[in-house]
Specification:
14 helices; 7-stranded mixed β-sheet; alpha/beta; Aspartate Aminotransferase, domain 2; Aspartate Aminotransferase, domain 1; globular
Length: 356
C-alpha cells in the first residue's frame, strides 16, 4: 500500500532550505488563540512532565470547550488517531465511503482487512443516486465528511436526516467526520441526533487541529454513546496525548474565546468574498467549487502540469488531489489564509492565466 500523502510538509521543506507559503493545509490563519501565545513561554517546564493518565482530565475540558456531556467524549492524539482506533475496534466488515473524503479512512479500514466500497463522486452523481447505491451495497458502516474534505460541502438538512434515519433503522454505523464544523458554527453537525437519542449507530470524529490551528500539538476526540466511550477508554494507550496539548486544552477550556471566534468568523467571511470575486475573472482556465468552509477545491481546465511548476517557482504550495478517490491532478485544494497571502495566490493565478 502506498504511503500517506498529505499537505503540511513545511518541516521537511525548511530543512531543504525551501520556505513556501503553504496553502496545502486547512488551518485557521487567525489561530491559535492569543491566550495560548501569552502563556507559551511559561510552559517549557512541561516538556519534562508526563501527560495526565486520567482520561477524565481530557473529557472534562473537552466537554467545557464544546458544551458536551463528558460521558460522550473520548480524547485522542488528533482525529487521525481516532480514525485508526475506530477501524481497529469496530467489527464492521463492509465500509462504504461517501466520496470525495479524507483519504485516511480508506487506508485505516484497508489495513484492518475490511472491504472498502467507494461511492461515485457525489458532486457528479447527487444524493438520490448515492442512497440507491448505499441500499444496493448494504454496508455495515458509512463514512461521511461533514463538511466534506476536499470539497467543503454538506448535505442539506433533509438529506442528512434521510441518511441518519436510514442508518438508524438499518442498524448501520454512521461515522461522521466533523473536523471543520467550528468554521460553520456547528450548523450542520450531527451532535443533536446523538444528544437526543444516545444513538449507538452514530460516531462523530472531531479535531482541534484545524479551527484552533494546533497541528503540531495533535488534538482530537470522538463523540459517541457513553457505553462505547466507557469500553473504549480501556483500550487507549497510556500517555498517548502529549503534555503540551493537555495544558493547552486546560487553558482553552477556561478562557474567554469570544473575540477569537468573532475574528475568525468575520475574517473568513471577508477573505472568502475576496477569493470568490477574484475567481470570477479566471473562469476560462479554472473552475472554483462551492465551499462553505476555509478551503476550496479548484478544477484546472488547461495545462495542468505546468500549473504546479509555475506555483512552485512562485514559492506557493497547494494540495493536488490525485490521491483522492475518483479525482486526478487536474483538481487541487487550497486553504483560506491571511489577506496578504491570499493576494499572493490570486496574483499568481492571474499571472499564470496570462501565460496561456
Amino acid at each position: 500500500m502506498n504511503k500517506p500523502i498529505h499537505g503540511g510538509r513545511l518541516i521537511e521543506m525548511e530543512l531543504k532550505g525551501e520556505c513556501p507559503v503553504d496553502f496545502s493545509v486547512n488551518l485557521n490563519p487567525w489561530g491559535p488563540p492569543p491566550v495560548l501565545k501569552e502563556h507559551w513561554s511559561d510552559w517549557f517546564r512541561y516538556v519534562s512532565y508526563y501527560p495526565p493518565l486520567d482520561w477524565e482530565f481530557y473529557q472534562k475540558r473537552l466537554s467545557l470547550l464544546y458544551n458536551l456531556n463528558q460521558n460522550l467524549v473520548l480524547p485522542f492524539n488528533g482525529a487521525t488517531q481516532a480514525i485508526y482506533f475506530v477501524a481497529r475496534r469496530l467489527r464492521t466488515k463492509k465500509i462504504f465511503i461517501i466520496e470525495p473524503c479524507f483519504t485516511e479512512y480508506a487506508r485505516a479500514f484497508n489495513l484492518e482487512g475490511k472491504t472498502v466500497v467507494h461511492s461515485h463522486l457525489l458532486f457528479k452523481e447527487g444524493f438520490k443516486n448515492l442512497m440507491t447505491c448505499i441500499k444496493k451495497e448494504r454496508p455495515d458502516l458509512i463514512v461521511l465528511g461533514n463538511p466534506s474534505n476536499p470539497l467543503g460541502q454538506c448535505f442539506s438538512n433533509e438529506e442528512r436526516l434521510i441518511l441518519y434515519y436510514w442508518c438508524h433503522e438499518q442498524k448501520v454505523t454512521l461515522l461522521v467526520d466533523e473536523a471543520f464544523q467550528e468554521f460553520i458554527q456547528e450548523k450542520t453537525s450531527f451532535l443533536p441526533q446523538l444528544l437526543n437519542d444516545d444513538d449507538k449507530t452514530l460516531i462523530i470524529i472531531r479535531s482541534l487541529t484545524k479551527y484552533y490551528s494546533l497541528a503540531g500539538l495533535r488534538g482530537g476526540f470522538i463523540v459517541t454513546n457513553p457505553s462505547s466511550v466507557q469500553e473504549w477508554k480501556q483500550a487507549l494507550e497510556p500517555w498517548s496525548i502529549n503534555t503540551l496539548f493537555a495544558v493547552t486544552l486546560d487553558l482553552l477550556a477556561g478562557a474567554d474565546l469570544h473575540d477569537f471566534h468573532s475574528i475568525t468568523l468575520q475574517g473568513l467571511q471577508k477573505e472568502k468574498r475576496y477569493i470568490e470575486e477574484s475567481f470570477e475573472k479566471l473562469t476560462k482556465d479554472f473552475e472554483l467549487q462551492h465551499s462553505i468552509v476555509n478551503y476550496y477545491t479548484v478544477k484546472i481546465k488547461t495545462n495542468i502540469r505546468s500549473f504546479y511548476s509555475f506555483l512552485q517557482k512562485q514559492r506557493l504550495l497547494v494540495r493536488p488531489l490525485d490521491d483522492f478517490w475518483g479525482m486526478s491532478n487536474d483538481f487541487f485544494r487550497f486553504s483560506v489564509k491571511s489577506h496578504e497571502e491570499n493576494k499572493k495566490l490570486m496574483k499568481a493565478m492571474n499571472d499564470y492565466a496570462r501565460t496561456l
